[in-house]
Amino acid sequence: MVSTRLYQVFYRVGFTPWDGHALSPTLWKLIESPGALAAGTALDIGCGTGDSSIYLARHGWQVTAVDTAAKALEKARAKAAAEHVRVNFVRADATRLTSAGIGTAFELILDSGCLHGMSDHARERYVHELSAIAAPDTRLLIFGFTPGGQFGVRGIDHGEIERRFLPQWALLSSADESEMTMNPQHPARHYLLQRRV
Question: What are phi and psi of 162, to 5 degrees?
């Protein structure tokens, strides 16, 4: 499993192969397709250098984006400034969101590869924290590799998503996301959930 500290080192030395991936078709559908979500408040967990955060902000969302890597946030702020969009970038741990002062009642939460690298204990805290900051009917879009799908990443599968999130959340869809992968033989998978009222 790749630790938070190791991600910080990767950003410092500039080794970030997960950066700059194509936009997920699932995220596009939520934001731009007919019947898309109305723009509101969004949280981007493990935002990295901010590509998804900036995309959401360009489409009218009020975005808070969190990451533990200071260098990633520095790059994300520069990108957002160059695009002339406003994103609230915060250095915070995804398992301690309620104590980070980022707010609550987010209507869209995005995780592009954060949960799939966590330990069991961190996953428990992550689910608890997301449930605490989500508004009723919040959509949660998680991207992650399946177990064994990527070196150094623990991975997560459909069964574990159901065990950890249901019944507080409803699983709306789950499918491979070839656009989100560094290894075409092991595509990432999306899980779209909705917070139950």
Answer: -65, -45
Q: How many residues are recorded in the chain?
A: 197
Contact 111, 138 (CB under 8 A): no
* 55: containing domain: 4-11+24-182+190-195
Give the C-alpha separation, 111 to 18, whole Å.
13
* Number of folded domains that form the chain: 1
CA distance 150 to 127: 23
> CATH number for the domain including 138?
3.40.50.150
Helix runs in the chain, H state only = 4-13, 25-32, 51-58, 70-83, 120-133, 158-165
Q: Phi and psi dihedrals of 127, rounded to 5?
A: -60, -45
- Of 157, 143, 145, give the one whose Cα is nearest residue 183: 145
Pairwise pLDDT comparison (106 vs 181), residue with the higher score:
106
- Model-level pTM? 0.87
